[in-house]
Amino acid sequence: MGGAVRRLPTVNQEVILRQFPESGYWRLPLCPMIPDIGRLSLLIAFGAAVYAAIASVVGVQQGRTAIVASARNAIMAIFPLISIAAAAIIYALVIGDFSLDYVASVSSRGMPTYLKVTALWGGQAGSILFWNFLLAAFLFAAMLRKWKGEEHLIPLVIFVLAITQGFFLLITNFLENPFNRLAMIPADGQGLNPLLRHPGMIIHPPMLYLGFVSLTIPYAFALAALIKGDKDDGWIRITRRWTLVGWLFLSLGLILGGRWAYDVLGWGGYWAWDPVENASFMPWLAATAFLHSVMIQEKRSMFRLWNMGLIIATFCLMIYGTFIVRSGVITSVHSFAQSPIGPFFFGFLAIVFIGSILLILMRLDQFKAEHQISSFLSREAAFLLNNYLILGILVATFIGTTFPILSELVTGEKMNVGETYYEKVNGPLFAALLLLMGVAPMTMWFRTSAGRLQMSLRWPALVTTIIIAILYFALPLQGWGSPLGLWIVTFSTILTLLEFWKGTHARMRSKGETPWLAFSNLMARNRRRYGGYWIHLGVLVMGFGVIGTEFYQQQTQVRLASGESLSLGRYTLTFNGMREYAGADDLVNTEANLSLYENGRLVDTLTPRNQIYTRTRQPMTIPDLRATIGEDFYVLIVNWEGLSANAATFRAYLNPLVNWVWAGGIIFIIGTFIAAWPDPVDEKVKEAAKLPALQPAIGD
Amino acid sequence: MAGTSWTAIEGDAPKSGSSKLKFIVGGVLIAAAIIFLIVNAASGSTQLYVTVEEFYQQQNRLMGRDLRMGALVVGDSIQYTQLDATTSRLEFDVVDSYENPQYTMHVVVMNEPKPDLLQHEATALIEGHVQADGSFLVNPGGLLLKCPTRYEEANPERLSQQ
Fold first, then answer.
1. pTM for the complete prediction?
2. Does B46 touch chain A if contact means CB atoms closer than 8 Å?
3. Which of A52, A504, A622, B145 could be a cystine partner for A74, CB 3.0 to 4.6 Å?
4. Is the pLDDT of residue A374 over 80?
5. CA-to-CA distance for A166 and A352, rounded, in angstroms?
6. How many helices (H) and strands (E) does chain B have?
7. Which residues from chain B sit within 8 angstroms of residue A177, using beta carbons?
8. pLDDT per residue over A499-533, tens digit each?
9. CA distance A159 to A147
10. Closest CA to B124 of B109, B110, B135
């Protein structure tokens, strides 16, 4: 191997220089050893993970802190080692070292440098290396922390983290190694697929990976507490922010994925309930349930078993999702190529799941609640109902995603459920969840009087009913589904806004503050609570967008000769002509020029285009749109009949309120930042007290 | 705000048996409602997943039934026809394997754009039914091409060495 490897770069240089003398190949010095250094770093990192796992257990068993410290050092050493490997593959991608199979399959000479770098996660082997890199970075950061009060769990946390990192390093080293070389070196690589050359797709996978790896930390603490038989809830408090950060990244990944689909795939939608989309949605749901119910454990020492189950479910669903995406076991429009890593992920999932369940069964006595729910009309009961609904959506989505496997096991026939299934099940459950989102903050801990709750809800309900009645006749709204959905979303939005108003008003009265100061102070002093309300508001705004696009989307497809028009809603679109022009990166663009009229008034010129990457002959349709707060007019070229014919077929969509989905996403993310930001008051309270379970957080 | 009204753990009296029962009944009712929704939705929206070969082997049973098929696109067969101003037809053939194209399915898609990824060697996921003339009529929105997410083609000519 060594001799062949040493000769390859020489061949590579000769071939490239002969065929592409001005390729800029020499902009970076070629060092033939760099991929080998990367490969070696990965092997050493794997050894470090194995050592850390063994040493942490041995250290605990023998009570020798020096061995545990060495395990911690080994875990921390993984990050720089994987960084070297990641840097090596990025180097190979940037200089175009096509002697590496991975580089040849995802990169090409004509690609811009930033795309060459992001091609690190453009293929299976590179993306797993990237996953390893992010996981190692989080582990490194976790090991730098002191974890005050929970030091006794650290050796076992190291054990769980080392096993997880070791598994991913095993895959990278022995099954999907990005440093594998080719026997025949191509002069140029295949390049990254054009559909992946979009900002949303560049950022979307890292966000999901960051979410997944961040959630590994709370799982490790949960499992450590289980193994140790720790009855204290400290691990929950101490890892809450890690969970929130993981959840934030998962949310960002989901939103960006939706935006990419909307911008690039040209079907006018953003979510299709595809198994791969569901694969990232399910851990997000489990984490959402956990983040809600964990508050009950913190405040009232209840739901211990439930929360342990949820954090384990979150981690297992993360592995399950990875298994679905990368094994090819379920047919999806997004899946990776069939790969040998599927059984390994399944095996790991089985070990994690069965091991965790066994541990729970062994430690059942650890989960005895100190209190119980006393009333249906209480904050605790509302949280429980919230969890039931989220888990209902999760179970329905899991069944839908796994339906081909389940049906084959039961009936011998592979069946599939379509989008209708998800809409029928998850539609009502989401509606109930959105309603609860508004009502739950009106309830009190322990018990709420029915009269008081009724008082809080009466006026918002009346105002909502008047608004929806006006809309029903003015727009008009159709059927009963969308008016009901809009009623729920409007009602919950009013209730959520009232929470902000009540808090601000109380401060204005008690402290004599101006409205803006009172509002700012309210946010600053109750970040967790009001961050949560911002998140709710974001979801509700997204809810408006979903209702608009699901119930009121209009579309048409028409062939137009130059000068002809199509009509959609109150818009008229006139085709003015086509032009062809060359773009960067071997692109040829064919662009249509269309005038958009709203009620007869020219409001925009739209230029949808088709692109063809001349070398790979890969076409790409780029829609154009006019976006307003009320709707998007979205148009794409379906078929072009050539410059001489001067005619083309266009598909146009009118997507009401679609921008509310993105605006809601932004509010949601801002809310998560607010909630995750360290709250000085809260920190002080926790630090000083080690509070008794029932004591309320400040501002609650 | 809300939480200031409760402060005392003494108020948290042990739950009575009937109260516990209420929660159990409530939980069971919610679970039953979710199960009903799942069963009801699944029974009305399932498609049988078959390969091209499986369809021809069970042709009589599967004709006209709602099916989902995943197969390879034959590049030369792709044809887009604009029938009139508002009607278009996209046609192509799919096979299970290029090496053994014994069974071929002719696919017809009405009034849908030609997807960018519809090309030779692409995997098409089609949802619809087989018509009396033997062609597979795709449901509206039922033509999906495997997204190139981390796109990797099998290429036997590129031999890897460890």
1. 0.86
2. yes
3. A52
4. no
5. 14
6. 3, 7
7. 162
8. 999 999 999 999 999 999 999 999 988 888 999 99
9. 16
10. B109
> To which residue do tokens 């760099």 refer?
A34
Do A558 and A566 form a contact (C-beta atoms < 8 A)? yes
Cβ neighbours of residue A90 closer than 8 Å, sequence gap 6 or more = A116, A117, A120
Does residue A425 contact residue A415 with C-beta atoms inside 8 Å? no
User: Does the beta carbon of A378 lie under 8 angstroms from any beta carbon of chain B?
Assistant: no
How large is the average pLDDT for residues A630-652?
Answer: 87
For B67, list phi and psi in degrees, rounded to 5: -125, 160
User: Contact, A359 vs A312, CB < 8 A?
Assistant: no
Handedness of CA A502, A504, A507, A513 (dihedral sign): negative
Phi and psi at residue A489, in whole multiples of 5°?
A: -65, -40
CA dist A416 and A421 (Å) reads: 10
User: Please, which residues 620-639 of chain A have a Cβ atom closer than 8 Å to chain B?
Assistant: 620-621, 636, 638-639
CB-based contact A418 B84, cutoff 8 Å:
no
The nearest alpha carbon in chain B to A696 belongs to B3
Tokens matching residue A209? 């990976």
Chain A CB contacts of B26 under 8 Å are 376
Alpha carbon distance A196, A289 (integer Å): 32
pLDDT of A475 above 50: yes
- Please state, in angstroms and rounded to a whole number, the distance separating the CA atoms of residues B162 and A181: 6
Q: What is the pLDDT of residues A534-586, one digit of tens each?
A: 999 999 999 999 999 999 999 999 999 999 999 999 999 999 999 988 877 67
Cβ atoms of B46 and A415 within 8 Å: the answer is yes
- Distance, CA of B60 to chain centre: 23
Tell me the pLDDT tens digit for each residue of A121-142.
888 899 999 999 999 999 999 9
CB contact under 8 A, B44 and A373: no
Tell whether ipTM is more than 0.90. Answer: no
Q: Under an 8 A CB cutoff, do B150 and A121 touch? A: yes
CB of B147 less than 8 A from some CB of A: yes
Measured between alpha carbons, how far is A438 from A218 in angstroms, rounded to an integer? 29
Q: What backbone torsions phi and psi does residue A629 show, to the nearest 5 degrees?
A: -65, -25
**Structure-token pair, residue A590:** 């064919």
* pLDDT in the model for residue B4: 31
**Residue tagged 């739209």 (tokens):** A606
Q: Which site among A185, A298, A333 would you substitute to test the B interface, given the most B Cβ atoms closer than 10 Å to its Cβ?
A: A333
- Please say whether the dihedral angle defined by the alpha carbons of residues A625, A628, A629 and A631, taken in this order, is positive or negative: negative
Q: What is the 3-state secondary structure (H, E, C) of A146-166?
A: CCCCCHHHHHHHHHHHHHHHH
Closest CA to A574 of A652, A657, A655, A656: A652
3-state secondary structure of A190: coil
- Which tokens hold the place of A426? 């998850």
Instruction: List the single residue in B with minimal CA-CA distance to A104.
Output: B158
Q: Is A638 helix (H, G, I), strand (E, B) or coil?
A: strand
Cβ-defined contact of A266 to B151 (cutoff 8 Å): no
Hey, are the CB atoms on B38 and A395 less than 8 Å from each other? Answer: yes
